[in-house]
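Q: what does this look like with S-adenosylmethionine bound?
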Amino acid sequence: MLEMALAGAVRCGCSAVGERIRTNWKEPALGDKYTRFAPFYDLLSGEYPIYHAGRVLGINALAPSKGQQVVDVGCGTGLNFALLQQRIGASGTIVGIDRSAQMLRQARRRAKAQHWSNVILVQADMVLADPATLSAQIVSAGGSALADAALATYSLSLMGGWEQAWATTTSLLAPGGRVGVVDMQDPVGWARWLTPLARLACTWGGSDIHAAPWRAVEEQCTEVIRASARAGHLQIRAGNTMPARTG
Ligand SMILES: C[S@@+](CC[C@H](N)C(=O)[O-])C[C@H]1O[C@@H](n2cnc3c(N)ncnc32)[C@H](O)[C@@H]1O
């Protein structure tokens, strides 16, 4: 486990652990919830009965295919990994990026327990990271410089300055690569009375329920797929990034 704390990027299942890589990373304050609660995240996060539905819809909308490289932004303990593996298979690659070494430690445990050797874990702050440095870390851990797809589930809304994290995410994609966002808002319709509960859950998790980061997919992607679940509390968007203009 020590190597995860030391290395900037590590490919799970490799006998040779990635060498230490310099990043602009600074250890989060001890008060970081995801640092303190990482071992209990899967139990306390409300995965079943609430949030699992969003990640299923998000990965269906993203629809990565066999052999593709997918970046999981703010991957946490790796709750997306099993669903992504079903899509990309052993020939694909998952690149999980998170700023919390403790959350990544749980993700690494998951990958090890499942014998997934195609998972690269990178410790980085998506708001502060330099995209070129991130890309170099991924390459040095055995991945490709540019990914086919990227997914952010329940993570952008708790990154103050998520727009910068979004820009960094899309810069890790090959031209026309797909991107998916799953995040939260106030429930709508009959479930509006649950708003205080939803807001409390988001506040506890550190998310801004009004951030609506899926707007970036709406505004910057083509062929956008839209879905929602849990009375509108979970919002799902996926689309193709626009290829860079030439000439
Ligand atoms: C609510 S958890 C979601 C984890 C995972 N995506 C999931 O669906 O279960 C949010 C994650 O985002 C990470 N995070 C928060 N701010 C970040 C940042 N600026 N850069 C990278 N990761 C960040 C946290 O450490 C945490 O693991």
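The chain has one domain: 2-12+34-239. Residues 34, 55, 74-76, 79-80, 98-100, 103, 125-127, 153-155, 158-159, 205 surround S-adenosylmethionine (CB under 6 Å).
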